[in-house]
Amino acid sequence: MLEIEQEVTALRSTRNKPAGSVRIVAGEHAMDAVLWPVLKAFMVQYPEINVEVTVDNGLTDIVDGRFDAGVRLGEQVAKDMIAVRIAPDMRMAVVGSTDYLARFGVPQTPEQLADHRCINMRLPTRGGLYHWEFERDGRELRVRVDGQLTLSSLSQRIDAAENGLGLAYVPEASVLEALNHGRLVRVLESWCPTFEGYHLYYPSRRQHTTAFRLLLDALQQSKS
């Protein structure tokens, strides 16, 4: 009799636990810097909730892709979506190794990047190369750079820069350790802009599950 009561209690406990599935699409940096640190604890706290994250640096249509939500920088979110900030503003950085800068010099203005080997990134949605964005004293510049390498992976662009293969344009937070340890040196710092941080966005008319709301709450709490 005691065993039966214990089984019933365990069954009720399982039924009371939040359950369900959540599908999210996010870029590589958003996944590494924002989602993954939260998910590691979230999955342990809610063992009955399944989370699927597709890493895609393109501007994926979350409705066509049947995703519950996506993660983008605030300025990239469509106006008809509900957007919830889940990360602080993000500043960019142009970095290179000491060896590279000793060989090719230090650019003083964005225009001087034309004389440098820059590590490009191709935009998966539009197919073109990303134009590096700069701003100072109200002046905005978008510079198309050239170089030997074009890499879609952020971690590979950073590694290439550390190995002296060119200058890279990356989120500042992703290279702080390399800067602190001297593996990379920052250039054009006064020109590097700050973008509105990552937002979780989703269609306004979609009804969301308890699992989705719990994950959204966890992401919002991690921002503070």
Could you characterize the architecture of this molecule?
The protein has 2 domains: 20-88 and 197-222, D-Maltodextrin-Binding Protein, domain 2 (3-Layer(aba) Sandwich), CATH 3.40.190.10; 90-195, D-Maltodextrin-Binding Protein, domain 2 (3-Layer(aba) Sandwich). The radius of gyration is 22 Å and the shape is elongated. β6 and β7 form a beta hairpin. 30% of the residues lie in helices and 25% in strands. The longest helix is centred in the N-terminal third of the chain and has 18 residues, at 28-45. The strands form 3 sheets. The chain has a 5-stranded mixed β-sheet, covered by helices on one side. Residues 4-14 have low confidence and may be disordered. It has helices at residues 2-16, 28-45, 98-104, 154-162, 176-180, 210-223; strands at residues 20-26, 49-55, 69-73, 81-85, 90-96, 132-136, 139-143, 168-171, 185-187, 194-195, 198-203. It contains 6 helices and 11 strands. The protein has 224 residues and is α+β, with helices and mostly antiparallel strands. This is Transcriptional regulator, LysR family. It comes from Enterobacter asburiae.
